[in-house]
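Hey Z.,

So I finally got round to the magnesium ion thing we talked about over coffee. Here's the setup:
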Amino acid sequence: MEASVPAPMPPIVTLTVNPALDISTSTEQVISGHKLRCGASRLDPGGGGINVARVVQRLGGRTLAVYTAGGPTGEAYRRLIEAERLPALVVPVQGSTREDFTVDETTTGKQFRFVLQGPVLSEPEWRLCLALLADSIPAGGFVVASGSLPPGVPADFYAQVARLSRQQGARCVVDASGPALSAALAEGVFLVKPSRRELGLHVGATLDSPGSQVEAAAALVADGSADHVALTLGGEGAVLASKSGILRLAVPQVHVQSTVGAGDSFLAAFVLRLAQGRGVEAAFRAAVAAGSAAVMTPATELCRRDDVERLEAQLSAESFAP
Ligand SMILES: Nc1ncnc2c1ncn2[C@@H]1O[C@H](COP(=O)(O)OP(=O)(O)OP(=O)(O)O)[C@@H](O)[C@H]1O
Ligand SMILES: [Mg+2]
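And the result:
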């Protein structure tokens, strides 16, 4: 008899319609009217979906990153992705891929992040993104649409992604803000990962109290906006709302270096564990572990696998907070 080999996990497909070439450096003090002499700089391929794909790959999962690229910055961006051997599908665009600039102020430990808008995408360009994505959607798998929309892309773009995913039997995960988030929720998604600020903007409240946070997350499940709502609360941990109820987790004690990429690492670990067949509770613990592992690394660096697995083991002993 033949030994049964488990079917390989379908890749987690991520979509980044507004990637950014991240330049990060440090300077003693950010002050106006002077040349600010900076330390060494580093370049990273940034953007929500790309970060999710990089973390999935780093944690041992299969992924396919669909992203736009244009101009000389787009060329540099593509080279960085190729150097990481990240499986990818590039959608060529006319405009130049944007750059983001992160400066760590060494005398205070403060971080300054300058986030540019991105090139204008034409209608044929954003429609091409949807068409190429549609060809890659894994039935029974996951599509992660994450990050801002560049100018020219309609606010219901992620709603269209959610519809396409559902039609092709995949679960759609969205991490966005403002009108793009609201439109995706109106369409209905499998999982949404707002931060407190993003969910607050959507519901028109500050969500300061634990009660209001739980209420807002649970309301999205109740009205069919999302099957699962992972509300992340920075250093205060996260709340997960789904049909089976509410879970809350505090973050493990970690030394905070830079919070860049925390939400993306959170989301990557969540989806990867689900794709690997783990339950929602285990996925949520892995997500908090990965988010916290990401803040332990400097500047734009994402989480490291050994940190994630150590914190995940630590959190698996922890019961959920009331
Ligand atoms: N100061 C911190 N200490 C420990 N863990 C943290 C800290 N900040 C963030 N995290 C981890 O990262 C996760 C996501 O963080 P956060 O809520 O800031 O989301 P985000 O998507 O990065 O935020 P935003 O999109 O608004 O910039 C948290 O749930 C937590 O697991
Ligand atoms: Mg975020």
